[in-house]
Amino acid sequence: MSVKFKVKGLRELERNLGKIDNVYKRRAIARKALKEAGEPMAKMARAMAPDDPATHKNDLRRSIYVTDKLNKRQKRYNRPGRYRVEMHVGTNDRAGVLQEYGTINHPPQSFMRPAWEGTRRGMVATIKSVLWRELKARL
């Protein structure tokens, strides 16, 4: 699924980010902004994730994370370039997909989609503010 946003006022931010010569520092700033912006979604998804009372653990809830690391399956489909930064919010538990979309015998109990819907508007603003904060600290 593809989601489009229209954001204004990022040209100046991009110019200032370009003033940092080290590619790795620029990527670190971008990763920090994306991780901070993704955390509210992960928190909401953890709160909404169904829990199996028989296990007495929050297995699915504990598996929801915000990271730039990919598992083997994700690596097959994502090939980020040198200047590209990606952050993933989701679960590494296979049961998460079954809970989110349901099966023939089990109705869906969505937790990621409602978390996305509830937090997406604030994500871009958070990314923008964290990037500016980090740039001001480094320039």
Short description:
The chain is mainly alpha-helical. It has helices at residues 11-18, 23-48, 59-62, 72-77, 94-101, 112-138, and strands spanning 64-67, 88-91. A two-stranded antiparallel ribbon has the order 1-2.
Beta-strand proportion = 5-15%
Overall structural class, as computed from helix and strand content, comes to: mainly alpha
How many domain modules?
1
Overall geometry comes to elongated
Number of strands: 2
Oligomer: single chain
Please summarize the sheet with the most strands. Answer: 2 strands, antiparallel
The average pLDDT is 83
- Total helical elements: 6
Distance between the termini: 37 Å
Q: What labels describe this entry?
A:
mainly alpha, two-stranded antiparallel sheet, 57% helix, elongated
